[in-house]
Amino acid sequence: MFYIQHNLFIRWSLVVVWCVALMTETSTLQAEDKQSRQSAVHKDARLVDGAGKCSGRLEMKCQGEWRALNIRNTGRQHSFGYAEVACKQMGCGSTLSITQSTNVTNLPAWEVDFVCKGSESTLKECRNHRTRGMQRRVNSTYSLQVICSESLRLVGDSEICSGGAEVKSDQGWVSVCEDGFDSETQKMFCRELGCGPPRNFRWGSPIGNPSLFKQFQCKGNESRLEDCVSFMKEECRQAARIICSKETDLRLVGGETLCQGTLEGKQAAEWRPLEDGWNSLKPEHFAKVCGKMGCGGFISVSRNNLPELRPVWLTDCETSSSFCKSWRGTSSNLALAVTCEEDTTLVKGPSRCSGKLQVRSGQSWHPVCYSFFSLEAALVTCRDLKCGFPENDRSSNFTRSPVLNCAGTEKHLRDCPSISATEEMLQECDEVSLTCTELPPAPYINIHNVQGSEFVSTYPPKVFKGHRFAISCTVDSPYSVLSIRLKSHIGTDHPNEWIQSPHDKKAVFIFPVAEDAHQGTYQCDYNFNFSSDIFSQPKFISVQVEELNNVRLVNEETECAGRLELEDGGEWRPVSHRHSWSLKEAAVVCRQLDCGSAVSTRGVERSAGLQHAWRFYSDCDGSERALTDCGTVKKWPSSSAVQVVCSGILLQPNISLFYTMRELLDYQPRYILLSKGHSFSITCSVKPQYPGGYFGIRFNQAISISQPAVNHTAHFMFPAADEAHTGTYSCVYVNFVFSHNFSSESQSLSVKVEAEFLEVKLVDGVLREDDGESCAGRLFVKYLNSLLLLSAETTVWDMKHASLVCRQLGCGSAISTKDIKLPKKELMARFFSDCDGSESALLGCGTVLPWFSSSAVELVCTGHQGGADKN
Asked: Which of 622, 548, 549, 632 is nearest to 587 (CA)?
C-alpha cells in the first residue's frame, strides 16, 4: 500500500480542539486497556459526507456530541499526522490526500491543542508535548477532508503504480476481471492508489494465475471503487497489467472523466484549485497539463465560478512552455477548468477532430493502422474525442480489426478489447486518417412522380394537385440506421412528422392525394441504433403543388369538346384512337378539365394523314383525377385521333330580374322584395357559342316555362306579382350539339312578394302577441326595390331617429338602440339624415346608399300599448 510521506506536507495554519475527558489518558497505558480501547476505535472518530466510510470530513465525539476539528491554526506539518491516524482508526489503511475545506456557514467544532505523529492507533492516543489541553466548543468555517485507502493494489512490478490489479475481499487479495474494468474504472483505481491516470492502452498481459476474481460493474458516476457493484467469480478473463502514471502535483476533478474538470494543484501536501489571476497561462502550458494527466491533446480552458469563496493557488507563470510552479495562496470564487483529449488524438489535421489517429501506450503515442481498425472503432474514436460521428470518406477501408475489436458502443477507444500487434502486423501500416463531424451527414432526399419510381427533375420540384407523390430519404452510411424521419411545416407551432424504419437504409413516404396544404419545405434526417437520441444533419427540399394542365380538347367553340391532345416531355400531340380507348378514359379527361361527365367519345381521321401522335396505354377504371394517373404514352405514327365530348360543353347562362324597369342585380341582397300586384320580368342570356337552343325558368326546382333563344337571349314577363311568386328562380339553357342535348344552369335568385312594401322593418326580434308584428330587432330600410340592413357605421343615428322608426311602424316610442356585430362584412345601407325627429317616416327626411359593413343597427320600441317587448 502506497503511503504519502510526511515530508510532502509543509506547515499550515489549523486550530484543533481536544476534549478534557480524552486527555486524561496517560502515556503509560496498560496493554489490556489499550486492547479494550481498540475494540471500539470507531466510537469517538469518524469520516462523514464523503464517497464512503474511508473519506470525508474528520469529526470527533466528546460528551455525546459529534463536532468537526477546527484545524485553521494548527501547524501544517501535523495535518498529515491527523489524517494518517484517522485512516488507521477507520480501518482504511493509509492516507491518499488531505484538503482544507471551507464552508459558507460555521460548523460546530472542537478546539484542541495536540499533535499526531502518525504512528498512533487512534486519535485520542495523540498528545501535546507541553500540556494535556483543554476542551472548548467553537464554530469554524474550516475542516479537514481526508481520503484513505487500503482496499486495492497493483502487484508484480517493483513500481507501486504499475502491475496487476488486485482488490481486497473476505478471501484475501483477488485479481480483477477484464470484463467491466474499463478506462473509467482503471482511472478510479489509479486515483485511489494516489497515482496518476493509467498510461497504457490495455496492450499488456495478465500477471500470475489466480484462482479467485472480482468483477466490477461501475455505472460511471461513482467516486470510489467500493461504490461500484461487484461480485466474486471463480473464472473470468484476468485484466491486463496496467501502468498508472506517477503521482503528480496536478489533477482535474469534478468532470465526467479524469481528463476534464477543475484544475487543482498540490503544494505543501494541500490540494487547491488553480486560478490564473494574471492571464499568464498559454495553450502550451495546458498542453503540458494534459500530458501530466496521461491524456491526449489540449481541447479547451475556461474560468468557472466556484460554489463559494475558497482557498486557491494563484499562478504567476513566465513565458516558458513548462507549467509554472510559482503558486501563491489566496481566496477566490474562480478556478480554471480544463478539458483534454483522452488516450486518443488526431494529429496533423486542419482541426482537432480531423487528422491521423494516434493512441497512447505507456509513455509514447503510436499510429493506428487501417488493417487494425473497423467501422465500430471509428464510431468509438469520434465519441471518445467528443467530436460526434465519423464521416464516410474512407470508411470502406475499415475492416474488422485484429487489434481493436470494438462493438461500437464503448465510451472510449481504450475500452475496446484488444490484443498486442506483432512485428509482422506492423511492417506495413497505412495510418488511419479520420474526420469527425458533430452530427451524422445529411441523407439524400428526392421527390417522385405518381408512379413512385421516377424522380421529379424540375426545380423547385412540382407535384400536381390530386395526384399521388412520394418523398424518399436515403442514407449513405455503413452504420445501422434505426429510423428515418420526415418533417413538414418547418418552423411552425404544429409541424407534421412521419417516422419509418428503413429498408436498405431508405424510407419512402407516400402521399395519396396532393393538396395545397402539401406545398412547402420538407426536412429529412435519421438516427443510428447506438445513438437514438441524436438525429443527423437535416436535408431540405421545397415542393410546389400545381394544377395538372397536360390535356386539352381542341375546338373553337368550347373547351369541353373536341380532339384530344396530351402534353408529355414538353411536346403536345394528338392521341391516336386505339382499341384501349373507351368512355372510361374519356370520363377521366372530362373530370380533369372540370367539364362534367363524358357524353361520348370516338375516333376521327386527321386531314393531314399519317403523323406523329401519342399511343395511350391504359389502366383506367374511370374514377381517376387525371389521365396520366392511370396510363402512359409513347410516340406513334397515326392518322387517327380521339374526339371527346363532355357534359359541360355549354357556357353558363346569366339571369337578371327587372322591376318597374330597373334591374335589381347591381348588388347581392339575400332576397329581392317585390310588392304584390306589381309586374316584373326575368331575362336569361348566354354568350354566343352555338346557334339555336332554348331557355327555361326553373322555379323552386321545377322547369315552369320555356322560350326559344333569340340572339342567345329570352325574356320572361310576370304581369302581377303575388305570394305564389315567392321562391327561387334560375335560367336553364338547352341546346342540341354533337348529336346530344346539353344543358347549363345559371346562378339562382331568391324573390319574396309581400302585400305591402314597407320602407322600414324590424326583423329577428320578438313578435307582439296581438298582431304578430315585430317591434324590436334589426332595422331594414328600403333601397330601390329591396330591403337592406342599416349599417351601424351611420354616424348620425341616435334615439331621435330610432323613435321616428317606432312611430312609423306603429310601435310606440323607442326604448333603446345599439350596435350589433356580424360575422363578416356584407352589403347594407348607410343613412344620410336631415331629420329633426318630428317626421312621420324615416325616408321622408333622409336617404340611403349601399355600404359594406360588419355591424348593424338594432332597436327596441314600446309597442302599441306602451309596454316594452320581451327579448
From this structure: 622
Question: CA 567 to CA 571: how far, in whole Å?
Answer: 5
- Predicted confidence at residue 235, as pLDDT, reads 85
Domain 551-649 has CATH 3.40.190.10: no
What 3-state class would DSSP assign to 592? helix
Rounded to whole angstroms, how far apart are CA atoms 247 and 98? 14
- Which class is 161-243 in CATH? alpha beta
Amino acid identity at 144: L
CATH class of 758-861: alpha beta
CA geometry: angle at 253 spanning 251 and 254, to 5°?
170
For residue 849 the three cell numbers come to 346608399
Residues 215, 179: contact at Cβ < 8 Å?
Answer: yes
CATH 3.10.250.10 boundaries in the chain = 6-149, 161-243, 250-340, 344-437, 551-649, 758-861
Domain with CATH 2.60.40.10 in the chain: 444-546, 654-752
The C-alpha atoms of residue 519 and residue 725 are separated, in whole angstroms, by 49
Query: What is d(CA 56, CA 739) in angstroms, rounded to the nearest whole number?
Result: 105
| pLDDT for res 94 | 67
Query: Which residue matches cell numbers 395511350?
Result: 616
Q: How far apart are CA 48 and CA 668, in angstroms?
A: 89
Tally the C-alpha atoms within 13 A of residue 223's C-alpha that lie toward its C-beta: 13
d(CA 438, CA 386): 8
Q: Are 613 and 581 in contact (CB under 8 A)?
A: no
Distances from the Cα of 174 to the Cαs of 110, 151, 467, in angstroms?
A: 41, 11, 73
Residue predicted with more confidence, 254 or 780: 780
Helix or strand run (H / E) with residue 371: none
Q: Which residues face 579 on adjacent strands?
A: none
Give 7's contacts (C-beta < 8 A, 6+ positions apart).
none
Instruction: State how far the alpha carbon of 445 is from the alpha carbons of 239, 442, 524, in Å.
Output: 48, 9, 7
Q: What number of residues does the chain have?
A: 871
Query: Would strands 469-474 and 531-535 be described as parallel, antiparallel, or unpaired?
Result: unpaired
Architecture of domain 6-149: Roll (3.10)
For the domain with range 250-340, which CATH number is right: 3.40.190.10, 3.20.20.140, 3.30.70.141, 3.10.250.10? 3.10.250.10
Of residues 805 and 83, more confidently modeled = 805
**70: which residues sit within 8 A by CB, 6+ positions away?**
14, 15, 16, 17, 109, 110, 111, 138, 140, 142, 143
C-alpha–C-alpha distance, residues 749 and 682, integer Å:
10
Cell of 235: 473464472
| Contact present, 203 and 128 (Cβ < 8 Å) | no
Residue with grid cell 501547524, as numbered in its chain: 75
Instruction: Give me the CATH topology for the region 344-437.
Output: Mac-2 Binding Protein (3.10.250)
Q: Is the dihedral of CA 180, 183, 184, 185 positive or negative?
A: positive
CA–CA distance, 275 with 331 (Å, rounded to integer): 10
- Which residue matches cell numbers 480524552? 22
Could you tell me the pTM of the whole model? Answer: 0.47
Q: Are 145 and 107 in contact (CB under 8 A)?
A: no
Cell numbers representing residue 290 in the block: 494534459
* 583 against 768, higher pLDDT: 583
In the CATH hierarchy, which top-level class contains the domain 444-546?
mainly beta
Q: Could you read off the pLDDT of 698-728 as tens digits, one per residue?
A: 999 888 899 999 999 999 999 888 889 999 9
Residue whose entry in the numeric block shows the C-alpha cell 345601407: 829
Domain 654-752 is of which CATH architecture?
A: Sandwich (2.60)
Backbone angles phi, psi at 88, to 5 degrees: -65, -45
Q: How many helices (H) and strands (E) does the chain have?
A: 9, 52
Pairing status of strand 327-340 against strand 260-267: antiparallel
Interatomic CA distance for residues 781 and 373, integer angstroms = 91
* CA 290 – CA 341 distance, rounded (Å): 8
